[in-house]
From TrEMBL:
This is Tudor domain-containing protein. Pfam families: TUDOR (PF00567). InterPro entries: SNase_OB-fold_sf, Tudor. Residues 70-128 form the Tudor domain. CDD domains: Tudor_dTUD-like. One of its GO terms (cellular component) is cytoplasm. It comes from the Eukaryota.
Amino acid sequence: NSAKNKSGTMTGVSLNREFTLYVTHVEADGPMLRIWGQIDKEKALHIENLIESLDAGFKRGLGAIQADSVLVPHTTCCAYHENGYYRARICRPNNGTGTILVYFMDYGHTETVSYEDVRILNDTMEGIELQTIGALAADFILADVLSVRDFWDYRLLDEIKNTLRYEEMPASICYVFKNTRRALRLRYQGKDFSERLIAEGKARFASSDHFA
């Protein structure tokens, strides 16, 4: 059975079949650990190439928000973050602050960015295609672990995020719970990452019964 991500698109992975996951984001989900990542490397590279072809125009102001622009929630745009432009969906303008909350749909996280950093995709061939390709970020729950306390310490969460993010690693879905939540095994540097967290006292073991 193929699994579905949050936006309903097929991720093309089956239970207990190993695939390569490019980890893009890590966040707490109560006592669970949610891992976001990309599976379709070819499509990710295609999106990068499309954005690269628009980059010079973006830097000249192509698609910049105008004073009379109406920002529609869920509109796919590009937003500048850290070191370049990435696809994003508009969540909501933060009235009176000159900023917008956007969801980076290929990475799985939301950020507040300035109006100046958002580019509305126009009717060019590249812009239309960027609006029609489904979100690449798929989310999973790391199998076998829960936080030591009732919540994840933010410093530990940052440490885990910095360890895994922007790395490719073998992964597999070991079971599905609550109909749509997918429990993920990750192999980091040749070792099961859940076992590593437990061995280092950074998480406690939780069987599949805990996730039912």
